[in-house]
Amino acid sequence: MVTDFAALEADATAQIHRMRRLAEDIAAIKVDHTSDDATVTAVVDGAGRLLDLRLTEGISRLSPTEFDSAVVTAASVAAQRALAVRGGLVEDFNSKVNKQQQGEQ
């Protein structure tokens, strides 16, 4: 059995590049969501971590319960959207890897 080490190395290098690109794409995810009344904007990353929380003067009209709800809802919606983007990237990556393993390009 003869092994083409150059082809094996090229495949491994290509796989590493795809993995790095996936990591970079995930790291670049930033999603924001603004409440319906535009008083609260939450910004999250591809892991769903809160990066920024912006508040307008309109929060002064909210009760503490309404304020809590607006913050939690904005952060939750932003996180759900960010994780959906991340999921799409991972799904695309897995699809390409599976096609390559099956001999497709």
TrEMBL record:
It comes from the Bacteria. GO terms for molecular function: DNA binding. This is Nucleoid-associated protein YbaB. It comes from Nocardia ninae NBRC 108245. SUPFAM superfamilies: YbaB-like. InterPro entries: YbaB-like_sf, YbaB/EbfC. It holds the Pfam family YbaB_DNA_bd.
